[in-house]
Recover the amino acids of this structure.
């Protein structure tokens, strides 16, 4: 069993930055691939970034070059650094243990123009 707690969202102007963090409980975190998803109003939830247990990363085309996912297995955390934010990045962001039904509660990111 893994519990995930998301934090770090907020309101920022376009061009600004935010850093999201996901804290995980449990002893298996280091073996899990982790992802950050987002869901905007009226849209489906989408995967924006993922990182394997060994640190290999993948990004959605819409965030490549702007977002960076990282993890600290010693601290059981995964982070999403978001730079050059755009209004279209506005959404609720969730972390997830990929392949499992472990989700964070979500954190709201709002980017004003």
């Amino acid at each position: 069993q893994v519990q995930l707690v998301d934090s770090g969202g907020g309101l920022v102007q376009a061009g600004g930055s935010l850093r999201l963090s996901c804290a995980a409980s449990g002893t298996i975190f280091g073996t899990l691939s982790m992802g950050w998803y987002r869901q905007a109003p009226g849209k489906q939830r989408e995967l924006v970034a993922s990182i394997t247990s060994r640190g290999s990363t993948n990004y959605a085309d819409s965030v490549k070059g702007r977002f960076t996912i990282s993890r600290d297995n010693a601290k059981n955390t995964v982070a999403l650094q978001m730079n050059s934010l755009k209004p279209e990045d506005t959404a609720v962001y969730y972390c997830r243990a990929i392949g499992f039904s472990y989700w964070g509660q979500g954190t709201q990111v709002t980017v004003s123009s």
In short: The two ends are 40 Å apart (CA to CA). The chain is about 0% helix and 50% strand.
